[in-house]
Design goal:
Elements lengths: L2 H8 L8 E2 L5 H12 L10 E6 L3 H15 L4 H12 L3 E7 L10 H21 L3 E5 L7 H7 L5 E11 L22
Antiparallel strand pairs: 1-5, 2-3, 3-5, 4-5
Helix pairs in contact: 2-5, 3-4, 3-6
The structure holds flavin mononucleotide (FMN).
Enzyme class: oxidoreductase
Protein name: Putative NAD(P)H nitroreductase
EC number: 1.-.-.-
Length: 188
């Protein structure tokens, strides 16, 4: 099979507990960003940006996750789990959407599609480079403290992509849907 298609057909998400060092370095993160920029984007608005959390910054993210968990009413054990989710991944990348809601030609839904397409290209590029990861959001994205920590004015905290080297091959799983069931010819 064509190797590019093979890459697309073998990408799977992998959670933080299966991600180890080495993490994508600057060169890899840049190639992933380049791939994101090649995704469909009406008006070339680039309605997204990535914020990389790595090294010592992971402890700051863990503290921010702890605070958010406590604000959400979690107990100490629950907050510690959230802190672990921030500290464990080799790299965590926040995905921020920055939509131009007053754009005369490109409505919001098209800009959201561009954000999703960029994310898909970003994850596929990580996979092509030998890394794995997973996009995560959860109630945390609605926490005012975390939003303030990551977002500029008008931006939306979409979530965080955890990234690293896969510690194990992806588990086999049932297909989401049969490919032949999600397309059809247009008939009268
Ligand atoms: C914007 C966005 C947010 C997501 N948030 C979560 C999440 O909080 N928790 C989770 O388990 N999966 C979340 N997912 C789904 C996973 O990233 C992943 O796509 C899903 O587990 C299916 O695995 P696959 O990518 O291998 O098909 C999210 C996906 C997207 C696109």
């Amino acid at each position: 099979m064509n190797t590019s298609l093979q890459l697309l057909l073998t990408r799977h998400s992998l959670g933080a507990k299966h991600l180890v060092d080495p993490a994508p370095d600057d060169a890899a993160l840049n190639q992933m960003a380049e791939a994101a920029l090649h995704a469909p984007d009406h008006g070339e608005l680039v309605p997204y940006r990535f914020v990389v959390v790595r090294g010592a910054a992971r402890e700051r993210l863990a503290a921010a996750f702890t605070a958010a968990a406590l604000r959400a009413g979690k107990d100490e054990a629950g907050a510690a789990l959230d802190a672990e989710r921030a500290a464990r991944p080799p790299v965590t990348v926040a995905l921020l959407a920055r939509l131009d809601l007053g754009h005369p030609q490109v409505p919001a839904h098209e800009q959201w599609i561009a954000v999703g397409a960029a994310l898909a290209n970003y994850l596929n590029a990580a996979h092509a480079l030998g890394f794995a990861g997973k996009m995560l959001s959860g109630a945390k994205v609605r926490d005012a403290g975390l939003q303030a920590a990551f977002c500029g004015p008008g931006e939306t905290l979409v979530g965080w992509v955890v990234l690293g080297t896969p510690a194990r091959p992806p588990s086999t799983r049932a297909a989401k849907a049969a490919a032949r069931d999600i397309w059809q010819d247009w008939t009268e």
